[in-house]
Amino acid sequence: MHSVLFHPDHRLWLLRGPTSAYAIRLAEDDSVRNVHWGAVLTLDQAVTLAERVSPAASSFEAVAGVDELAVEGGARFGPPSLVVRFADGTRGVQWRYEGHDVDGGHLRIHLRDRHYPLHVTLNYRVHGDSDVIERWTNIENRDDQAPVTVLRCDSAAWAAPHRTHYRMSHLVGGWNSEFQVRRTDVPVAETVLTSRRGMTSHHANPWLAVDDGTAGEDHGEVWSTALAWSGSWRITLHRDPVGRTTWTGGFGHEGLTWSLAPGEALETPVFAGLYTPDGFGAASRAWHGHVRGQVLSHPDETRPVLYNSWEATGFDVDEAGQMALAARAASLGVELFVMDDGWFGARSSERAGLGDWEPNPARFPSGLGPLAAEVRRLGMRFGIWVEPEMVNPDSDLYRAHPDWVLHMANRDRTEMRHQLVLNLARQDTAEWTHAWLDRLVADHDIDFLKWDANRPFTEAGWPGSGDPERLWIDQTRAVYRIMDRLRADHPGLRIEACSGGGGRADLGILARTDQVWVSDNTDPVDRIGIQHGFSQLYPAQVMSAWVTDSPNPATARLTPLRFRFHVAMAGVPGIGGDLTTWTEEELKESAELVAAYKRIRPVVQHGAQHRLRGDGTLTGVEYVRDDDHVVLAWCPTRAFGHAPAPLRLAAVRPEAVYRDLDTGATYPGAVLLQSGLPLCLPRGDHASTLVRLRRVH
Ligand code: DGJ
């Protein structure tokens, strides 16, 4: 079955996924218009839809139809996806179709401006086993003299079909409170989801789902989209008073312009879209499949249980202390030991040393070699924290190269966490950064980098550069290039993306990292909500979650060790507490829980995830892989006399029987679906449980 079909008479393309279809056509003026995004259609059925365009009701209405990449020009008054200004002052684009080609599931539609030699290609890519459509734009200035000013160049615009109501779901938050799901009616207005921070951000994540207000976890049509970009971004959602809801998204934010030099070409990041008829849960599972199938480099690998020193030591890092933590971590079954911030230069606090990437000689008199060797002797891999994009002004690097940071003439250099951002759009700075990372990884055969970035951009200038605002894009590209080069040269290297917790989680960074540090908030109660939001788009396999001390350093909440573990086990758990203070009993219980995780991890990391909701505060997740089901359920608090009702499971066959692998109890599938799994939850707050079920017949 071909996944891209073309109807030459009607100039219509149909992209087919296993359970969805996407149709577009060329209008009379050669603009590419959306025809259909939803359930499966044949080419002939799509043609009947293409003919249904109602003429404008008055001279005040916009051009009929929905553009796939709206430009300025003609009667278009919604948010444009592509805004350019030519050297003579003319704005906008008038399209001329130049042809198309199809390569497997990749459709390219070639367009150009009718007058100026500006060429644009709209890219669509589908993968046979998935309903996700990847879209992006190529733009090329083929003028050999004049530059083109680019004011906006989005990756794609998406449109939900006509419905009587529209609702949007998106992710908001802040430091320590990332990935909070918000569900709200789409106002009849232009709504902008954006980060102007130069980073993906904690405050908004580039994921957006639209439904008609009736979708739930397991029912209803959902149109969701995700942008693969780790710098500033913008998604503008437009609900017309009489028309449909559309949205356009891409890199950069409003007010930035840059120049496309004569002969220069530019490719945007991917803005992917997915239609699902079966609710938010099915949408998440399809996205998880996409991340594994198309985004991650090592999807089949099982992520190790790690230890991270940050919450135990803060900046107080030295060889003996790390070795003591490593010994305890190894005895618990930890497989990867990660030394966090504080190991280099004069970095004994957040005030100094960032940028001086040599081991601190007082803390590591013989360098990192002895610690790395000890960690390996203990049977673990060795990982280390880095923050390559940043510098403390109090550092040898900054004293030598004060011009290597983002800055503007006649403006203060705003410090955040006492640091500035290196300008990696500069080739010398980027080369230097790659060189020290390459040396560090090679010298110690580093297995894992925790790659952090602890502040947004301010005064993002580059005095002397002819096109300074371009760095908002080039900086992110440079980070990608450095990561890609390191990974190509060190195939065993794995990277955890971090930006003060979850400030840099997106499909762009996941193409060159293996997991994400989701939040600096390790309180398991808060974490349930954070993980719920994260799971809308990102799979458990990339969700790094630590078990830390109680009371929690961020919230002061006291929680049982078992509850902390059960929450972290929903992803890739690590231990981040001060193990030197844990009692023998706690260490023993931790070792048992790490072993329990290793038993369930193939199902958690490689299975399908179903979010579950019980009564009261009871929530859970169920992972399913072949015949195995793992249920993790959490009940942070409960009122007197209300033992939670059994938790209804998903993805269970009604006619089958399921056996609890730990107790031997058996349950008919129909009962698990209808009445639920009885949970053996301890009394009191912060109750949790882990159940392993196997389909027996
Ligand atoms: C922010 C990260 O999110 C933390 O886990 C830790 O690595 C600190 N930075 C270190 O400065």
From TrEMBL:
Catalysed reaction, written as an equation: Hydrolysis of terminal, non-reducing alpha-D-galactose residues in alpha-D-galactosides, including galactose oligosaccharides, galactomannans and galactolipids
Keyword Translocase assigned: no
GO terms, biological process: carbohydrate catabolic process
Enzyme Commission identifier(s): 3.2.1.22
InterPro entries for this protein: Aldolase_TIM, Alpga-gal_N_sf, Alpha-glycosidase_related, GH, Glyco_hydro_27/36_CS, Glyco_hydro_36, Glyco_hydro_36_C, Glyco_hydro_36_N
KW Acyltransferase (keyword) present: no
Active site: D452 (nucleophile), D520 (proton donor)
Alphabetical list of CDD domains matching this protein: GH36
Binding site for substrate: W175, D340, D341, R417, K450, W451, D452, A453, N454, C498, D520
Keywords: Glycosidase, Hydrolase
Domain Glycosyl hydrolase family 36 N-terminal stretches: 32-261
Domain Glycosyl hydrolase family 36 C-terminal: 621-693
UniProt-listed Pfam families: Glyco_hydro_36C, Glyco_hydro_36N, Melibiase
Gene Ontology terms for molecular function: alpha-galactosidase activity
Domain of life from the UniProt record: Bacteria
Family from the record: Belongs to the glycosyl hydrolase.
Name by which UniProt lists this protein: Alpha-galactosidase
Species of the source: Planotetraspora mira
